[in-house]
Amino acid sequence: MPPKLLKTETIYRGRTFSVRLDEVEYQPGRTMRMEIVEHTGAVVMAPLDAERNVWFVRQYRHAAGGSLLELPAGTLGRDEDPMAGAGRELQEEIGMRAGKLERLGSFWLAPGYSTELMHAFLATELTPSQLPPDEDEDIHIEKVPWQQALAMAQTGEIQDAKSLACLFAVARRLE
Fold this sequence. Notes:
Blueprint: E1 4-13, E2 18-27, E3 30-38, E4 42-47, E5 53-61, E6 66-70, E7 73-75, H1 82-93, E8 96-108, E9 117-128, E10 140-145, H2 146-155, H3 161-174
Parallel strand pairs: 4-9
Antiparallel strand pairs: 1-2, 2-3, 4-7, 5-6, 5-10, 8-9
């Protein structure tokens, strides 16, 4: 028998996520309180140009205490189609439009406490097309040859989980 939700209460509402407190009964008489981060979902894209360079962004991540090399990614709007969100984020973050956007799959980022589902895409046939970036982003674009990017993922030089998952999905798709 699946656990039963007894009570839920939103205890924080922020710009990018909310936090709710759930009381869940796992067995009769055995309940747990759980904090759940509610998130609308997100997208991550591996932009691969005609020269087989992967386009990354480097940005400061306060929670990580420094700058990380990541694939372009972003939060979906409420009820936004993931493919549309991926196209929008590419234009905002790297100033490129993908002529071809291939869905690689989806994965939960932290299913123990978050509802965030990440949708991964391979973006090819890139052409310039820029949208204004988000106000809170200071992004620097770096192009890395595909084989070097894969090696960086395998050696731990890339530490961002969504980027790693997407790169390994691309590797499986390309090789």
